[in-house]
Specification:
By secondary structure, the protein is of the alpha/beta class. The protein has two domains: 219 residues, Rossmann fold (3-Layer(aba) Sandwich); 89 residues, Rossmann fold (3-Layer(aba) Sandwich).
Length: 321
């Protein structure tokens, strides 16, 4: 595992502060009653691009040389990372080229293009990464969504904010795609509050981390079958697997139907609309209910809201909720 440190995350927080929003952490009465413990929600979906991804993108890009930036930025993404890189590029006056998948939500493709990025659609994540390798060899500066230490520590700034606002937290639930966000957040929190328990969650069909933890090595998924496409990393990285092994209490895997049902629950009861990849954190918290305590403080990260009304309608029809 590449050696990261709490000091690196603190330095990243200072570096990206002019460019990202310090998102609120707010108590939820409805969730506290539902789960039998004090619950606070981290409203990270309020970040520009509707996800946490600009944190890592800005931290990586700001650390590049002028020459590297001038060659153009390159990313592979199922949606949110691409939007984050596209937004950061626009803010810094740089060009960006994003490899997205044909299965990527049209709203995410449109958003990346609206930020000024060139978006290429590839048949699969494997094809997208292969094309990115070719473009990187031509000179583009590649920004990996979760295997780059500078991206991971940028995402970890989210953990610093959470602990500053909830110094008594006992448990935290966060989603896992490639594992960069939860890895950075877990380090930021566990290095300062070792007794805190960090729980990850994936959806069935996008469970690269849980499979890797079970095998003790990186597993390549043959396909992403979950509707939570923003969790659709075909594999985790050595860096993020190492962080998960070191810091996570467990990784839960919940079905798409629960993610959509809890998406609707959050809209009805917490008055927030988030994507399935974020709503599945509630599905995990429900599973953990018997392991939570009345005197505890659970923080749930609502990491993204990349969802359109057409997509929401389609999910409801698909699962009958």
């Amino acid at each position: 595992m590449n050696e990261l440190s709490l000091d690196m995350i603190r330095a990243a927080a200072q570096r990206i502060a002019p460019y990202v929003l310090r998102t609120p952490l707010l108590p939820s009465r409805a969730l506290s009653e539902l789960l039998g413990t004090r619950v606070s929600l981290k409203y990270e979906f309020l970040q520009e691009t509707a996800s946490f991804k600009p944190r890592g993108a800005f931290n990586k890009i700001l650390g590049l040389s002028d020459a590297a930036r001038a060659r153009g930025l390159l990313a592979v993404s199922g949606g949110n990372h691409g939007k984050g890189v596209a937004f950061a590029a626009r803010q810094l006056g740089l060009s960006a080229r994003i490899m997205m998948f044909e299965s990527t939500a049209p709203s995410a493709v449109a958003a990346a293009r609206a930020y000024g990025a060139q978006v290429d659609l590839l048949p699969s994540p494997a094809a997208a990464f292969a094309r990115a390798s070719e473009l990187e060899a031509e000179g583009y500066s590649f920004i990996h969504p979760f295997a780059d230490p500078e991206v991971v520590v940028g995402q970890g700034t989210l953990g610093l904010e959470i602990l500053a606002d909830a110094p008594d937290l006992t448990d935290l639930v966060a989603s896992i795609g490639g594992g960069g966000m939860i890895g950075g957040v877990a380090m930021a929190i566990k290095e300062q509050r070792p007794q805190a328990r960090i729980w990850g969650v994936e959806t069935v069909g996008a469970d690269a981390m849980s499979q890797a933890l079970a095998a003790g090595t990186i597993i390549q998924l043959p396909a992403i079958t979950s509707i939570a496409t923003t969790l659709g990393a075909p594999s985790v990285s050595a860096l993020t697997l190492g962080l998960a092994q070191r810091y996570l209490a467990d990784v839960l895997v919940r079905p798409d139907a629960e993610a959509v049902s809890d998406l609707i629950w959050l809209l009805d009861n917490a008055k927030v609309l988030v994507e399935p990849a974020a709503a599945v954190t509630l599905s995990a918290a429900r599973q953990l209910r018997e392991r939570l305590t009345p005197g505890g403080h659970l923080v749930i990260i609502l990491c993204g809201a990349s969802i359109s009304m057409a997509e929401l309608t389609g999910f409801r029809e698909l699962f009958g909720v």
